[in-house]
């Protein structure tokens, strides 16, 4: 997707599509929840112009910042 807003719109379309499979709708609902949480946590950055579509690791680390793969060490 080009932006997080486009990704959110796409997920909403999938959820509302009666032809979409139940698995696709379930995946879109989970992803939409993560994207909306990401938007809530990064409002200032988005308002400043950063509309990139976060990847799966960014979404995961936003929800679970203490997980080993999300920790950043200063050497």
Overview in brief:
This protein has 75 residues and is mainly α.
Rg from Cα = 14 Å
| Multimeric status of the protein | single chain
Write down the overall geometry: globular
Task: Give the distance, in angstroms, between the N- and C-terminal Cα atoms.
Answer: 35 Å
Q: What are the secondary-structure elements, in order, as H or E?
A: HHHH
| Overall pLDDT metric | 92
Structural class: mainly alpha
Largest sheet, strands/sense/barrel: none
Tally of contiguous helical segments: 4
The helix content, as a percent range, equals 55-70%
By DSSP, the count of extended strands is 0
Q: How many domains make up the 3D coordinates?
A: 1
Which spans of ≥5 residues are poorly predicted at pLDDT below 50? none
Strand content: under 5%
Any descriptors?
mainly alpha, 0% strand, 75 residues, globular
How would you portray this structure in words?
- There is one protein chain.
- The protein is 61% helix and 0% strand.
- The model has no long low-confidence stretch (mean pLDDT 92).
- The chain has one domain.
- It is mostly helical.
- Helix 1 (4-16) packs antiparallel against helix 2.
- The N and C termini lie far apart (35 Å).
Layout: helices, strands, pairs:
Blueprint: H1 4-16, H2 22-41, H3 43-47, H4 56-63
Helix pairs in contact: 1-2, 2-4
């Amino acid at each position: 997707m080009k932006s997080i807003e486009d990704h959110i719109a796409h997920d909403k379309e999938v959820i509302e599509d009666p032809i979409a499979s139940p698995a696709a709708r379930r995946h879109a609902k989970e992803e939409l929840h993560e994207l909306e949480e990401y938007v809530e946590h990064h409002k200032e950055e988005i308002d400043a112009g950063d509309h990139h579509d976060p990847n799966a690791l960014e979404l995961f680390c936003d929800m679970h910042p203490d997980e080993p793969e999300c920790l950043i060490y200063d050497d």
